[in-house]
Amino acid sequence: MDVRGFRATAGGGSAPEASAPLRALWHEAQGDWKRAHEIVQDEDDRDSAWVHAYLHRKEGDLANAGYWYRRARKPIAKETLEQEWEAIVAALLAARASA
User: Fold this and answer.
1) Is the pLDDT of residue 70 over 70?
2) What pLDDT is attached to residue 86?
3) In this structure, are residues 65 and 53 in contact, taking their beta carbons and an 8 Å threshold?
4) CA–CA separation, 13 and 11 (whole Å)
């Protein structure tokens, strides 16, 4: 699956079988920021921290986002939110495909 295919599933009724970070991004693409945040907030891996950072950036809480980017060991995003969402999805899908 690629980013386009993953985005297409966001029109469906249930999240695809995927990791917590991907499920969170799926819910966020459906407009459910709260559910997305609930999924990643208690996870302790770098990918979840990256998604958590993105969610707080989208929320406008840049200080909190910065904390989560550091936890993810990622630079603070400079691109648009849409570009960042796609970059995260692409990276997570690539990691899943190579696992």
Assistant:
1) yes
2) 94
3) yes
4) 7
Closest-CA residue to 37 (of 10, 67, 14, 58) = 58
Cβ atoms within 10 Å, residue 98: 6
> Using one digit for the tens of pLDDT, what is the confidence trace for 5-58?
777 776 666 667 789 999 999 999 989 999 999 999 999 999 999 999 999 999
CA distance to 9, 41, 72, 91, 99, per residue, from 67 (Å):
30, 13, 9, 20, 28
H helix count then E strand count, the chain: 6, 0
Cα end-to-end distance, the chain, whole Å: 14
Q: How far apart are CA 73 and CA 50, in angstroms?
A: 8
